[in-house]
Structures
1.
Amino acid sequence: MSFLGWFLLTPLAAFLLLLLLPREQEKTIRVAALALSLAIFGLSLGLLAGEPRETDLAWIPELNIRYHVAVDGLSIWLILLTTLLTPISILISWKYIDRRVKEFHAFLLLLEFGVLGVFAAMDLFLFYVYWEVGLVPMYFLIGIWGHDRRIYAAVKFFLYTMAASVLMLASIIYVYQRAGTFDYPAILAMLASGKLTFTSLEQTLLFLAFFVAFAVKVPLFPLHTWLPDAHVEAPTAGSVMLASVLLKLGTYGILRFCLPMFPTAARENAGWIAVLAIVGIVYGALVAMVQPNVKKLVAYSSVSHLGFVILGIFSFNQQGFDGAVYQMLNHGVSTGALFMLVGYLYERRHSLEIQDYGGVSTPAPWLSTVFLITTLASIGLPTLNNFVGEFLVLQGAAQADFRWAVFAATGVILSACYMLWMYQRTFYGETPEKVTHQMTDLNGREWAAILPLLALMVWMGTAAETFLPRISAANRLILQQTTVNVPFNVQTPAPRPDVAAKEIADAR
Amino acid sequence: MPANLFPAPVEIFRFLPEIILALGGTLIMVLEALTGDRQPKNALGHVSLAALFAALVAAVAVHGSPGPAFSSMLLVDGFATFFRVVVIAVGILTVFSSYRYLSREGANTGEYYALVLFSVAGQGVMVTANELIMIFIGLEISSIATYVMAGLLRDDARANESALKYFLLGSFATAFLLYGIAFLYGATGTTNLTAIRETVLRADGPSPLLLGLAAALMLVGFGFKISSAPFQMWAPDVYQGAPTPVTAFMSAGPKAAAFAIFLRVFVTIFEPIGDRWEPIIWVFALASMTIGNFAALTQSNVKRMLAYSSIAHAGYVLVALCARSDIGTAAAMFYLAAYALMNVGAFAVVAYICGKGEKYVGIDDLAGLGSRRPAVAAALTIFLCSLIGVPLTGGFFGKFYIFKAALESKLIWLTVLGLLNSAVAAYYYLRMLVVMYMREPGEATENLEPLPAGLRTALFTSAAGVLLLGIFPSRILEFAVQSAKLFGR
């Protein structure tokens, strides 16, 4: 097993280790969880350099199910984002989570295990396993440590995702039936060489089954209704992980699986999906604008931002793809930071209603500054990260259909409206008595949690070339795989002999 | 068939697990009479455990010399060994989770442990039977012992209702089965499954009408025993009323054994008319899943909810039968093994919580279990995740394998509807998780006694088994696939 194979198991090991600690030793548990997650982050940096970044082992040989994991330009940054946000989530929960500390940290690490696996899985069965495994800890994170309506939100979150993904499971089995393997590169190779073909109807149905599972997770309008509930009710760390990482599972899945496996269906359906994405962009922004609850506002802004990602993907061109992936990372960084800052506000004032704030910048100037930078990043100010992603997406959309770009661009304007208006009402104006009392400025721990994200906002906004080349390379390959009616060759590892034999047997 | 009144030693050896169980049961009854009333009866439970473990070892050892026994009345093959191990394991887990329950109810008698052994012995005969009469005898041994177990608490009205209902409807169903057997004997002139199959496959074989009638009658009998819709009515009342460890036992052991003979009969002798019964099983499967899951949604009693869930799970296994392939048979075997573990485990938790007189069996009584008894809650979480079908548990892999078999047999609609059904099911299992972890402790969980050793063994063994089946299913799957091939086709 190569480094990657072991690396993906480290969060699980950390989870089990944490379970062994006595539950009364809360301090030890926090420190251990932080140290372990930082160590995992350190290890994940090794993925940037080390080769080979692939592990392929038999898991359940009877069914040809393999522990096949690999990392490429599409997944590497998402993996790093996940490993970075886990220790940050632990840091921001230091004071916020004060009961059942052990379970909280254990679930956070289990969540990391599931999410990392989704980003690396190269076997459809393995992918589904990781996909569902991430669901359980998130359910508990919302349901145990959330706010008042947490149970409703947790159950809704679980059922939406579960109901949508069972049909994906059926489709995965169907693909296996036809291809004789769950191994994703092998399936792609068979598609490329024409050994495996799906009829138009098959493609459409399979595409829809996969797409709906992913679209719920994204979430694409009109499947988004679980998201505001889950976000508002989740504890801060839960919201951060949900927004920054879990939503990306959906968009990642679309780009990784839906498009290359069912290119014709994907292109045929691109029209209405792009329209839904644009509706989501505008609708999310408009709903965000009227929210009295700051966390709900950020949640709806996620619906809007994720619309850009979907639009970029279904533009079917290099800029669109690159912008979509970059926007996935941007959203992870800036919305994650926003949720953290909202959490900071909540810890001080114990309210999420905007009307309970006002003039926060007087008692807490640094908090306000950091919040402002994050707000500006979120609305796409040049030199900060979101600008690059949104620009690329709009460019890609314009190439595909100019009208898409026009409508989507209104979302950028609207985002400036709702974010700045919220900022103004919260941080400027009269300072009520209570705010003066309760608002203290950032402490060392809070600085430590937010600084890496601030640095990333500037870095990703000014030096996109650190990230984009790897992303583009991976996207070029995917774009090539989705080229319809043009013979294309897919560069994938040569299938193993046993798979090849099965392929020949199944070739029709 | 040569009439040999003196079976060869190897034939007796092939019957060894059941011999051990029957002797063990008899021994316990004798010991019980000798020890008198005032003695604590845990020792008799230990004797039954010893017998069960010995039978388990024997069952595995017997697998080394497969073949027929007693003029082909019994057949020891991989299929039989698989189910033998499952039913004996269920027996062991049941005994482990019974000690405390029985002494709490003042019913810690030797006869209970003897009945467990007899019932398991009957199930052993069922799964090894290669002959209709043996099937019937095995079924009766198992059923009658279980009827008595259901009515163990003589002074409890619900338990009496449960036992009576189980007995009346069960006998009724057995009568149907016997009718079917009679028709089959009339049509083919033999009761040996292998011989019947040969007759059925001959060109001048029995008339399809007679065969179909026999199949239909037997289907009613089996349908009752596995609590498949439309013969599921009895299950909720019986499961709710019976003492919890008994419910655990009868929802797993007798059910698995009944499925074993169902599979053996339908996949061997009725396979030639498979096109006829497949649509019926299709409807049964879908109806069981749908009725079970939707009825479970509104239950407030854990035992009743698990009863409906067990109806739904019977539906999943019927999907595998509907596939009519070796993969389907293997999938059914794997699923039943996983199901036995997760169900016995879940009921063991109920047996722990319920308190004297089964006062706390509502779903709300689980409130706060997560903070009061985290280890028990974690085990129950594993069982529930497995019942939902969350990956890395045996329940998920079993379900996956069943629907894979179904898709291979082009049962696309059944697969889609079945999978959607399992999403519905997630809702009511989640309710238990919600109550357990997200509510403040209530009366039931405030004053829980420490987890007794026997229950602890049962709980953690089944939880480990569920995870093992989910993470490393290879060995058991391989065995199931091989055994399914040995048999029938």
2.
Amino acid sequence: MFRSSRYPGQDRPQEPQPPRVAAASLFLLGLILGLTGGLVYAWLISPVVYVNASPARLSERYKDDYIYLTSQSYALTGDWDTAQERLAELEEESLPQRVAALFERYLREGAPAPAVRNLAVLTQQVGGDSPALSLFGPTPRPPQVTPTATPAGSTPTATLLPTPSLTPIPTRTPQPTLTPSPTPVPTATPRPAYRLLSQERVCEPDEPAPRIEVEVVDAVLDPLPGVEVIISWEGGRDRFYTGFRSDQGPGYGDFTMTPGLSYAVTLAEGSPTISGLRVEPCGEDTGGLPGGWRLSFQNLELNRPTPTATPDQ
Amino acid sequence: MRNWYRSLMWISLGLLLGLALGLYLGWVAWPTEFTDASPVILHEDHRRDVTLMIAHAYVLDGDLDAARRRLHALDPEAPDNWLLTLTVDAILSGRNEETEIRPLVTLTHDLGLESPAMAPYLDETTTDDVQE
């Protein structure tokens, strides 16, 4: 019997069968290709387009604009219920913080004063907190004055903060006669035009700095030129205006102090009087030489014309 | 030939299933999250409300460019038509005159749009009413 030496033990060559794994591989290949194609189509070519959405779907930029519009609408209509409903549509977990942040942004960017004021009102209504809110509320909040060493033997003659609303309003006085006469309206303590923003030491490592530096800014923190500053001391008085040192900025002015005298500084248009300012030695870490004081005042009137242009909204 | 047919069948089956799975994932399970959605996607009620707020803001700030830009974001194709329709609807449906009709009429008029329905409100409502 003939036997092939080529295929020992076999009558004929066995036809190669596709392994089972090949079918699974082809299926898997098709699955991956299909999945990729499906995702590309669904995500990139024809993504889901939401319609009839709520304001919660808006981008951050449009959400900010929505909040701004809500503040404006609330300012015009005074309808707090509607304003609340509108804000609730944003579904923001930290709405007060968001509104406060938007208010601060508008303030920083120098937006028109009414717009900032309306945002401040909305921030207060939703319970947001911001240090700058003290500019707009009925009771200005205490400014955060940097703690500095109080000059020895001196006592400030006035608090640093205006407190107009804390003035007790007298009750209406009963009229003794039946003759109708106008009852005098109790007047509140006039609100100072400026508040003290900060009080810091002036120290220079290489030379003495016996001077009082005054920086005046407006409500939106832009420098204010031409503000009259009054310096007084025992037996003397002088004044200067901000903006005459072009190298220091339009809101800056300074005064050279005489060692041994105690000075008081106030702004002519109305501000707290900062007294007990003396030439004192600075700390060792700042040179140890005699130094002065730097005072920053902020105007509290938002409608005061500011020298900068308003930004785009 | 038979093997070729069988291979084609398996890869086609995989493609179909993969495609279906991909579409399900992309459209339903993990749809694209737009991070820059504009007001044009808002429900019509919200778009009406935003339009009214735009009119309120315009009455207060007098910024016609900003109002025009916001209206365009609401309806990029026909913002004027949208505003005019809304204003006339507010008039005809007797909405609150002070808080809705007049602000809308002011903005519509200042954008150069006119309608006979607005005439009764235009005698007093002019651009001078906008609080600068």
